[in-house]
Amino acid sequence: MVLCENSGMSEVRPDTLIRSGASSSKSAGAGAAFSPLYRQIKALLVQSLEQGEWKPGELIPSEFDLAARFQVSQGTVRKAVDELAAEHMLQRRQGKGTFVSTHHEARTRFRFLRLAPDDEGEAVLAESRVLDCRRLRASAEVARALDLRVGEPVVAIRRLLSFGGAPSVVDDIWLPGVPFKGLTAELLQHNRAPLYALFESGFGVSMVLADEKLRALSAPADIAAILRITSEQPVLQAERVSYTYGDKPMELRRGWYLTERYHYRNSLN
């Protein structure tokens, strides 16, 4: 039994475009002394996404309309939109327009699940089971990662991902308590959508980028027991901090991957 314990942007004229860091977003190139015009437009588009002017899955205005709104050329807008599409914040659909990315779509969903079968013809279908959910006070490590004060409330989740019935991944997840105030074990148990899709539709938090680091370690005893392996057996540990718009950290995740039949795959451009 799983328990959860309580322990619209106005028109912008060219002369109002900022010269540096229109947004704090990493992708917007904040910190440069002078930012190219298309990057300023990009930052303003990110600002509109952050403010919820366009919701996940919604169509954004055409390049023609955005160019008129910002009083810049369509080429400048196109370059800004191209970068946001390359970063998966927006999605172009042939003949339909450009839409805000959503984690309810498969191609966005699998951006954050990098485990692939050694047999490339084998489908990877994850079965998710929440093992624990509780509200805690942030430790120094968690507070630092999530830009919180030590002792602030966080939601701590442990879940198991199985592939073909075989336990393969244990995820320990920490979320800031205030944005996820209504997140309960019951809600997680009844959720059938990907976790990031639940965060998006249920709490208005879109994960748009992540920093991740990997290392090979021996499995801790509790993780080994869940994965049904010996504690001496190596696992791949992936530690990730995921961010919403404006570079605001919204998740610390430490995943333990069993890679006997699967590998961690990353495609680089």
Per-chain topology:
Elements: E1 4-6, H1 37-50, H2 63-70, H3 74-86, E2 90-93, E3 97-100, H4 106-109, E4 115-117, E5 126-137, H5 140-146, E6 153-163, E7 166-176, H6 185-190, H7 195-203, E8 209-218, H8 221-227, E9 234-244, E10 248-257, E11 262-264
Parallel strand pairs: 1-5
Antiparallel strand pairs: 2-3, 4-11, 5-6, 6-7, 7-10, 8-9, 9-10
Helix pairs in contact: 1-3, 2-3
Overview of this protein structure:
- The chain has 2 domains: 8-100, Winged helix-like DNA-binding domain superfamily/Winged helix DNA-binding domain (Arc Repressor Mutant, subunit A), CATH 1.10.10; 106-264, 3-Layer(aba) Sandwich (Chorismate lyase), CATH 3.40.1410.
- The protein has 269 residues and is α+β, with helices and mostly antiparallel strands.
- It contains 8 helices and 11 strands.
- Helix 1 (37-50) crosses helix 3.
- Strand 2 (90-93) and strand 3 form a beta hairpin.
Instruction: Specify the overall morphology.
Output: globular
* Main pleated-sheet profile: 7 strands, mixed
Q: Label the CATH architecture of the largest domain.
A: 3-Layer(aba) Sandwich
Average predicted local confidence, pLDDT: 82
Note the gap between the termini: 44 Å
CATH T-level topology of the largest domain: Chorismate lyase
Number of domain units: 2
Roughly what fraction of the amino acids lie in strands? 25-35%
The secondary-structure class comes to alpha+beta
Instruction: Let me know the number of strands.
Output: 11
Number of continuous helical runs? 8
Show unreliable segments: 1-32
Strand order of the biggest β-sheet: 1-5-6-7-10-9-8
Q: What does the radius of gyration come to?
A: 20 Å
* H-E string: EHHHEEHEEHEEHHEHEEE
CATH class of the largest domain reads Alpha Beta
